[in-house]
Amino acid sequence: MNDNNINNQLVFIENEKVVTDSLMVAEVFGKQHGHVLRDIEGLECSSIFTQSNFGPSEYKDSTGRSLKKYHLTKDGLVFLVMGYRGAKAAEMKERYIEEFNRMEEYIRNGTFSIPSTFHEALRLAADLEQNRTLLQATLTEQAPKVEFHDKVLRSKELLTVTTIAKDFGMSAIEFNRLLHLHGIQYKQGNKWHLYDRYADKGYVDYVTYEQGNTLMRWTQAGRLFLYEFLKEQKILSAC
C-alpha cells in the first residue's frame, strides 16, 4: 500500500459518527480480515463498550456474497490495536488517531473551503457524499462562490467509465485496461468488477437496465479515488 493514499480512506462517517471498519484495519495493519474479526470478537471488554464501539455490518465480495465486518469508533480502534506490536504498527496507530481527530474537528467546526482546482473539487465531492447534511448550511452560505464547481460538488449521478476516461484524455477501452493493469478491476465475461480490496469502499454501484443487463458505474468518491491513485502513478488528469 502506498502510505500517501492511506489517510484518504482511513475513516468515514456512518450514522453521523466518525468510524473505520475491520476491512480497513486489516489492510492498514497487514492482517487477514478473518484474524481481525477474531481479534474483535475475542476482546474482553464490557458489553456496553462493545455495543457502543463495535457495530456489526456486512459487505459484498466480488461474487456477491454478504460477509461480516465491523464498524469501529476511535475508542474501539484504540482498544483493538493496543496489542499490535512493531514500528509499522505504532506508526499506523498514530496515523489512525490523527485522522480520527482531523475528521472530528472538521465536523465540529464545519470547515469548508472553496475548491480552486479539479483535485480539490473531486475531494469535496466525495466528502459531500458522506456528509451532505452537516455541510448543507455552509454550502448555502457559500453558494455564489461555489457556482463554478456546482455540478461536480453536488452531483450524485453514477458515472460511466467513458466519462472518467475523458478526464485523462483516454478512451473507455484504454482506461479500463489501465485500471486492470494497476490491479483495481478485473473482467469476468464481458463485465468489469472491482477487486475485493476496493469492492466495499463505495467507489462503484451497479445499474440494471430494462434489458436485464447489469453494469458497473463509478460514484464521485470512486472518481476521486481514481484521480488520487493514478496521480501517485504519475498519470495526471487532462483537466
Automatic annotation (TrEMBL):
Coiled-coil annotated residue ranges, if any: none
Q: Which GO terms describe its molecular function?
A: DNA binding
InterPro entries listed in its UniProt record:
Ant_C, Phage_regulatory_Rha
- The record places domain Antirepressor protein C-terminal at 137-232
What is the protein name for this chain?
Rha family phage regulatory protein
